[in-house]
Amino acid sequence: MKYQKADYDKLIQQYAERKFTKNDIKSFVYRVFSMYERATVGKVRVPAKAFANLIDENIQVDFPDYKIHSRQEFMEWHHWIHDLLLSDDHDIESIEVSYLGEGKYAAEFDVRWRGDFKDGSVTDLTVVQRWVMYESEQFDHPVIESYVAVVKSNNLISG
User: Fold this and answer.
1) Is 93 within the bounds of a domain?
2) Which of 41, 103, 120, 131 has the fewest CB atoms within 10 Å of its CB?
3) What is the pTM of this model?
4) If you average pLDDT over residues 10-35, what whole number do you get?
């Protein structure tokens, strides 16, 4: 029992010392994916510029077949991918949050990404993602510093 209490006490101490709790980080991840979906679906579309304050000026993104090294490149990617899509959906599985040093956080999770493209093709992938975020005095949300996505499975392939 003491071991579990010690873990709990450590967690509560981290909450006291940090700007964000683990659930704050999880909520932020869900918010970003909701914004991605609203960039392609709905009466009011979320524009690329809405992501500007959510990502670092020098963000590092490693997507399968696409690398990003700045906020400007992220915006270009956002326009590119959403110009190709009719719609998309993200189903996030169990986000694991860890506290890193110097006010940083990591979120690791699987996301099933489904989408319909304007050319008639579809996608259905499960992608493992790891985001590193940091606290900013300027914002009441974390800022994404790096973002790695690796395809775990192609759900269109049967067998």
Assistant:
1) yes
2) 120
3) 0.89
4) 90
